[in-house]
Amino acid sequence: MLRPITGYHNDDAGDWVAELSCGHGQHVRHKPPFLLRPWVLTAEGRASMLGTELDCARCDRLDMPGGLVAYKRTPEFDEGTIPGGLRKNHATKPGVWGVIHVLSGQLRYRVEGPAARELLLTPETPGIVAPEVLHHVEPDGPVRFFVEFHTKGA
C-alpha cells in the first residue's frame, strides 16, 4: 500500500528511516550503486520528499505498528445488529488502526484494493484494519464482535 512520508528519524546505526502516515517506518538509505537516494543526505532533500508515497509492505500484510494505544471501541454487535455501514465498504481515518474482536461465531472480513483478500475471523483470529483501506464485514452465521480503534500514543 502506498503511504506518504510524514517525517524522518535515525535508527541506532545512524541510517535514515522515513516515518509513514500509517505509523510504520521504512529505511531510505543512499548506498550507491545499489540505492540512489542522494536527497536523504540533507535536511532540505528530506524535506522535499515529505508527502511522497512509499510502498508499505507491512500494511499489505496488515501488520499493526508498535506503540499504538487503544482509544475507543464499538458496542458489541451480533448478526442482527451489525450496522449497515459496517456491511458496506468503509475505511478508518488516517493513522487509525482497528482490531475486530470476534467473541463467538465467525465473521467474514473483506479488504479491498491492491492487497484485496477475504479472511474468516474467529475468537482465535482477530481482524486487523489498516488506516484508510476500504473493507467490510458479513456474518457467517451467529456471531458476536466489537471493533477497537488504535492510534499513536501521545
From TrEMBL:
Superkingdom of origin: Bacteria
Listed InterPro entries: DUF3565 (IPR021948), RmlC-like_jellyroll (IPR014710), TehB/YeaR-like_dom (IPR015392)
Pfam entry (one): DUF3565
SUPFAM superfamilies given in the database record: Clavaminate synthase-like
Domain TehB/YeaR-like, chain residue ranges per copy: 72-147
Protein name listed in UniProt: TehB/YeaR-like domain-containing protein
